[in-house]
Fold this sequence. Notes:
The chain is mostly helical and about 400 residues long. The protein has one domain (about 10-400): Growth Hormone, Chain: A (Up-down Bundle), CATH 1.20.1250.20. The protein contains 16 helices and no strands. Helix 1 (about 15-35) packs across helix 8. The radius of gyration is 20 Å and the shape is globular. It starts with 15 loop residues before the first helix and ends in a 9-residue tail after the last helix.
Amino acid sequence: MPDTAALPETVRKPHFAEFVALIASLMALGALGIDSMLPALPVIGADLNVQVENHLQWIVSSYFLGMGFGQLCFGILSDWLGRKPVLIGGVLVYVVFGLIAAASQNFAILLVLRLFQGFAVATTGVVTRSIIRDLYSGPQMAKVMSISFVVFLLVPILAPSIGQLVLLVWPWRAIFLLMSVMGIITILWTWLRLPETIAPADRHRPDLAHLRRVAFFVITEPSSIFYAFAIMSLTGGLLAYVSLMPQIFGEIFHRPNLMAGIFAACAGTMGLTSVLNASLVERLGIKRISHSALTGYLVITAIHLAWAWSGRETILSFAILQALTMGLMSLSTSNFSAVAMEKVGHVAGTAASLQGVITTVGAAFVAGFIGNGWTGHIYWLPMAALFCGLIAYSLIAIAEKGKLYRNS
C-alpha cells in the first residue's frame, strides 16, 4: 500500500487509475520525442542536406543525451522546490524548444535544439520516478512502474505510425508541433490533477556537500550502482536498435513502409511483459523475475546473432527475434529500476537523478558507439545486443555476489 503517513492528505488523489495514466502520459513525452521522429529521419536528411546517413542517428542520440544530463538538474530541484512545479516547468521548456525546432533550417542547430529539448523532458522521467517512490516501495513500486509502463508503451507503439501519417499530409516540422501540443495537454492535466507528493519538511536546498554525500551513497551502494549500469548497458542496445531502424528497413530489407508496423509489434511485447510482471512480481519477487529475464535475453540474442550470421535473416525472423529481445529487456530493466531505488528512498529525487545520468547518458554513448559501427550487416545489431546483455549480467552477478534467481 502507499506510504502516505508523512505526506499531505491531498497526496491520496487522484484515484489510482488516473494517477497511473497521468504518470504514463508524462513519461511518454520522452518517447514521443524519439519514436515519432524515426520515419522523418531520411526526409530531414534530404531537406537539411545531411551528407553522411549515419549522422542522422544523432537526432535521436543528442535528444537522449540531453535527457541524461537533465535528470541530474531536475531531480535535485524537485527535492528542493517540490515535484509538481519542477515537472510542469520542465515540460513547458520542452514545448518551447519543440516549437523552435519546427522552424530550424540547419542540421547542426537542430541537433543543439534536440539536446535542449531532451534536457527539458528529462523532468518527466526523474520526477515521476521520485513521485512513485514517494508513495510506494518494494514489489508495490515495481507493480506501479510496470502498469505505468504498459500505458506508456502506447506511444512508442503508435508514434512511428503517427509520424508517417503526419508526413503524408504535412512536412516533417509538423512532428515537432505535435510534440508541443501533447506537452501542453500534459501540463494542464498535471496542474489540475496531480498533488504535491513531497512534504515541505522533507525538502532541502541543493548544496554541494549534500550532493557529494548522496552521490557517494549512490555509487557505493551495490544495488544502486551496479543495477544502474546494467540498465545503461541494456538501454544502450535498445536505443541503437531504435536509431538504426530506418537504415535496417531501408538498406537491408528494402521495405521502409513496414518499419512502423514491425516497430509497433516489437514494442508491443514490452507491454505484454510489463502486464505479466505486474501480475507476478509480488508473488515471485523482483530479482527472480528480472534475473531470469536477463538470462532469456542472452539466449535470444545469441540465437539471433547465429541466425543472422548464417545469412538466413528475413524480415519475419528479424521481427520475431527482436520482439522477444525487447520484451525480455523490458522485463529486466523495469525491475532493475525498482531494485536500484529500493535502498535510496530517503533521497529519492537526487538518487533518481544520479542514476538517471548514469543510465541515460551512458546509454546514449553506448548507442552512439554501436550506431557508428554500422556497416550494413544485419548481424551487427544482435551481436551488439548480446554484448550489452553480457555486460549487464556481469554487473548483476557482482551486485548479488553470484546469488542470482533468488526470491526477493
